[in-house]
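lol ok so funny story. i was supposed to be doing the assay writeup but got distracted and ended up predicting the structure for this chain instead. priorities right. anyway since i did it might as well share w the group, maybe its usefull for someone
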Amino acid sequence: MPTHPLVEQFQRAGQGQVFAFFDQLPAEGQSRLLEQAGEIDLAEVDRLVRTLVAKDASAGVDLKGLEPAPYEPLPDRGGDAKAWAQAKTEGEEVLRMGRVAVFTVAGGQGTRLGYDGPKGTFPVTPLKQKPLFQVFAEKIRAAGVRYGRPLHWFIMTSHHNHEATQAFFVENRFFGLDEKRVHFFRQGRMPAVDFAGKILLESKDSIALSPDGHGGSLRALERSGALELMAKEGIDLISYFQVDNPLVRCVDPAFLGWHRVRGSEMSSKMVTKAYPEEKLGHFCQQNGKQVVVEYSDLPMAMQQETDANGKLRYIGGSIAIHVLDREFVRKMSAAGALPFHRAEKKIPVIDSAGNPVKPEKANGVKFELFVFDALPFAKNPVVIETRREDDFSPVKNAEGVDSPKTSRDDQLRQFARWLKANGAAVSVDATGLPSAVIEVSPLFGSDEDSFADAWGKRSPKPAVVHGLYLV
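and the output, tada:
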């Protein structure tokens, strides 16, 4: 086997099996394997094997002292209207100062939707069938116009969809955005290991690598140079969301304002859980720290607990929408700052003879980081309530809950609600779903306020809305 410093490093670390077939590979295969191996932090892998893979190393979630986290309710649900107004004013000010960037986690594919391509290219709107990326792009463009400062947009891709995502934006001329303000970078990857802690090979020239979880986005922001660019541009606030949610308010001044007013390093949005079994993480408090406990880790008896008024105690559902301080992200991007989680998986591999194996049961461990694990480290974390009909209708499944149909219907309800609030006659059913197909481009109105402003200037206005596209 040819001597190479990386090969020697892996041998010294007890991971020499990664290069077991190295001398059989053509130059291209050797180069690919070396490039993948260069991504791996062997000291980190060793630490994770000792703490998460070794026998009896993995412990369950500690529920001692757990309580529901406090949150800021909306004004019409008991919240302080004056405080909400102050927060909105503060958020509008930082937007006018150009201190905000938008960050989308977009490494996924549309596989679960039966769609071949990056999830961000999946069509979601009711009439024009705009893809998710276009919806977000138009919201970001609209915010730039409204507040007089165009925003930078950072998009984290994966190794699997990076080139396709970039090509999609080029093909669509960046949806009217300044391409110099749209920044793509890849998510980090972690090697899978067997139950003895040995790094697995997917093929003779390929390591079994997988994305390092949405928490890896913080490391990727630092490693890609995005944080340095933000610092040069005077950006210190990052609006974070995931790619599958077309209703998300990418730029929400009230949310940004709450973050600033409270001096928070990491803030979050929550929706009230619709029912105890809803598959959302729970905002909780433990030993004076804010945490998110996944639905799978919180016993059902606790999820079903109610207060004296019959209201769910653990009512704050996490929807993966955050505001983060730039320097807090830098701090959390350091190795070991966030805890890794282990997940036992069925991982396609090759055996010691180089033959492919498709396991019938879990044969190894993957490592993932969760972004909400940064919350216990944040100063003054704040959770604000949002209405799911204004902010949350993800596209995750081909059918049923959180599907293209449910998201489309929620968009239609939102557009109809805006129209009715401004005096338009719209026929809707008992759920608020309009009988006609309506679509409002974010360039016309991206929230209640901007829509009302644009509608007020529109002339003539249709007396009855039968079907409409507003742009």
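The chain has three domains: 1-38, 66-396, 403-471. The chain is about 30% helix and 20% strand.
back to the writeup now i swear
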